[in-house]
Amino acid sequence: MAYNWPMHDSFRIKGLGGKKTLSGTIKINGAKNAILQAFAATALFKDSSTLSNVPNIEDTSRMCELLTELGYIINKKDERTYTLEIPENIITELPYELSRRLRASIVLTGPLLAREGEVTFPHPGGCVIGNRPIDIFLDGFLAMGATLEESEKSYTLRAPKGKDGKARLKGAEIFMRVQSVTATQTFMMAAVLAEGTTVLKNAALEPETESLATYLNKCGANIKGVGTSTITIEGGELLSGKGKVYKAPSDRIETGSFLVLGALAADNLVLEDCMPEHLEAVIEMLRRAGVNLEVGETTIKISNNGKVKNKSFKSFDIKTHEYPGFPTDLQAPAVVFLTQSSGEALVFETIFEGRLNYTEGLIRMGADIKLWDTHRVTVKGPSPLKGRELEGPDIRAGLAYVIAGIIAKGESVIHNAYYIDRGYENIEGRLRDIGVEIERISTP
Ligand code: EPZ
Fold first, then answer.
1. Residue 36 Cβ < 6 Å to ligand 1
2. Minimum CA distance residue for ligand 1 atom 26
3. What's the Cα-to-Cα distance from 367 to each of 2, 34, 338, 359, 391, rounded to whole Å?
4. Would you say the CB of residue 184 lies under 6 angstroms from ligand 1?
5. 336 phi and psi, to 5 degrees?
6. Any idea which of 58-72, 87-101, 384-398, 427-441 has the lowest mean pLDDT?
7. Which atom of ligand 1 is nearest to the CA of 323?
8. Per-residue model confidence as pLDDT tens digits over 247-291
9. What DSSP element (H or E) covers 10?
10. Residue 132 has what pLDDT?
11. 35, 66, 272, 421: which one has the fewest Cβ atoms less than 10 Å from its Cβ?
12. Could you tell me which residues come within 8 angstroms of residue 230 by beta carbon, excluding any fewer than 6 positions away?
């Protein structure tokens, strides 16, 4: 099937030149890194599933296109609620082009292999933030009794025959050598239909995994220990989603991105429908830097910030860390913040080895950043930024360039808007609503 994804858009931004005039309210959407996994988890169901608070981002569209090609019937009940009719037999070959665009497609391997006994998939694509190996996935499936066949472009995994002669994964104890988020989620789902007990060790602790497990347990799964580094799953039968609704938790990365923007360029900004308890590391850092944040149950407010000079913010060192540490997905926006704060900061990106290349673009804007190796930069501030033409390299660095363009003096053009659209719904509309002069340039 041919798709015409909007791959060639750009954003043109008129910078504020350091003034803090933005003002208004931003409603935080459902989390991309929860909803993609929830879509994949529906392959564990025998009938249907309803997903709500779904963000209308490009990745949601890609996932729906992918599942439709596997035989699903997907309808939008309303703006943010999707109903999915699960086919009795799901096609188990993930379409190459679609899967390459969506790193999260790898999460489908768990439920499909567990349900259908076989899955074929290409080496997953996604952001160019490192080589994104999948060894942990393959090792775990082998531990669950699967066999692996590799071809030049794809992998095929097959489950062993269970007691009843049907292909079925076996419960196993799996120690993940790093706390991989999607590997944790993938094995948790595969184990729901495996024979016997599965114990995941060194499991990732992200809240998105917890929200998924809660939903699956409501639908008949038996998952214990989520939110700790050891998760135990008792294998059972296909789940039923009838009458139950999964609600995506609020996107903590979107929240953190807008918090940085608010601190640097807003007088008054209210973030609504957010979950501050998922952002403690970021809130703590920004407060220590001197940002005045008023944190409510589901809101975070920045008030009377217009007269606070960015150079009065103090720099802070960042070491990205698995949850609940400082999230790697907020490293790029935080570096933009550090270019405007006073002092010198060390930023240590511990999770990915290719996630600091974007700093070259900030240096071209006037930032004082030194790249020491693929994991470490030092950022000296404050440095006034000048508008530039930049190529957004991935979702989060693309958003960081938008923030930099907004605070810079003069005009910026950020290419590869598609990457930003993958993770942020209607970004230009929401920014315009708080006073940003931004327009989308669509090139066919
Ligand atoms: C998830 O990616 C997120 N994506 C990423 O968000 C996020 O940056 C990352 O977790 C870390 O928090 C989704 O949830 C869809 P990992 P994931 O496996 O699961 C290495 C965004 O912008 N590793 O936790 O792919 C890996 O190379 C995206 O929204 C292996 O070595 O990340 C990395 O160094 C970007 N072998 C480390 O583990 C494997 O088999 C952690 O990656 C798997 C991972």
1. yes
2. 132
3. 41, 34, 9, 9, 16
4. no
5. -60, -40
6. 87-101
7. 12
8. 999 999 999 999 999 999 999 999 999 999 999 999 999 999 999
9. strand 9-14
10. 76
11. 272
12. 199, 200, 201, 203
List b or e across 180-201, with b for residues whose CB sees 16 or more CB atoms inside 10 angstroms: bbbbbbbbbbbbbbbbeebbbe
Give kind and range of the element (H or E) at residue 116. Answer: helix 109-116
How many CB atoms within 10 Å of residue 344?
14
Q: Give CA–CA dist 243/288, Å, rounded.
A: 45
Q: Are strands 81-85 and 48-52 parallel, antiparallel or unpaired?
A: antiparallel
Distance (Å, whole) CA 70 – CA 45: 14
The answer to whether the CB of 135 is under 6 A from ligand 1 is yes
Q: Which two tokens stand for residue 402?
A: 């938008």
CB of 352 closer than 6 A to ligand 1? yes
Q: Whose CA is nearest to atom 30 of ligand 1?
A: 133
Residue identifier of the C-alpha nearest atom 4 of ligand 1? 33
Residue from 60, 62, 99, 132 to probe ligand 1 pocket by mutation (most atoms less than 8 Å from CB): 132
CA distance 297 to 223: 28
Backbone dihedral region for residue 311 (phi beyond 0: left; psi -120 to 50: alpha; all else: beta): alpha
Write out the two tokens for 149. 């066949």
Structure tokens at 159: 């489950």
Q: Is the pLDDT of residue 153 over 90?
A: no
Q: What secondary structure letter does DSSP report for 124?
A: P
Tell me if residue 361 falls in helix, strand or coil.
helix
